[in-house]
UniProtKB/TrEMBL annotation:
GO BP: dopamine catabolic process; norepinephrine biosynthetic process; octopamine biosynthetic process
InterPro entries per the UniProt record, alphabetical: DBH-like (IPR000945), DOH_DOMON (IPR045266), DOMON_domain (IPR005018)
Domain spans labelled DOMON: 1-74
Organism: Allacma fusca
Name recorded for this polypeptide: DOMON domain-containing protein
Gene Ontology, cellular component aspect: extracellular space; secretory granule membrane
The organism's taxonomic lineage, starting at the top: Eukaryota, Metazoa, Ecdysozoa, Arthropoda, Hexapoda
A Pfam entry, by short name: DOMON
A GO molecular function held by the record: copper ion binding
Length: 145
């Protein structure tokens, strides 16, 4: 894990790890490099780099698999307790998302007539064939009416 920020116009940054539910521990091997840091009223941005495999048991290799990222934000620059935290599953090696243009995509309609039970919650599983394609495609959206 990395912890960093800007305090009194000075940057702080280090490579850490954690063992269970306890305060982070500074890694003996500092494998991350801070390239830049900036801060405004609402955001602190850190640009960092690291080799894919550090051969450090306290680091996780970066590869083409999905990696769960956890993050935390504190009210101050003291690393005591976070105010907000979360997680996301990402592929770190994926490039930035591009704008999606719906006019560049194929669309098709599937009409299904079925009578659903009159319950508040209904779980309904069904499968439908798409038109045949010569290359792999991904569904980027659907609408149920």
């Amino acid at each position: 894990m990395i912890i960093g920020g800007i305090q009194d116009e000075n940057t702080y940054f280090a490579d850490y790890h954690a063992i269970g539910n306890q305060a982070p521990i500074v890694d003996i091997s500092q494998d991350w490099t801070l390239l830049s840091a900036s801060e405004n009223v609402t955001h602190t941005t850190l640009k960092v780099t690291r080799v894919f495999n550090t051969c450090d048991n306290e680091d996780i290799s970066i590869n083409n698999d999905t990696t769960k990222i956890i993050w935390a934000i504190g009210d101050t620059d003291k690393i005591l307790q976070h105010r907000k935290r979360g997680a996301a599953s990402v592929n770190i090696l994926d490039g930035p998302a591009t704008e999606w243009n719906a006019t560049d995509s194929d669309s098709w309609h599937i009409n299904v007539k079925t009578k659903l039970p009159s319950k508040d919650t209904v779980y309904w599983c069904t499968a439908h064939k798409s038109p045949p394609f010569d290359v792999k495609r991904h569904v980027v959206g659907f609408r149920v009416v």
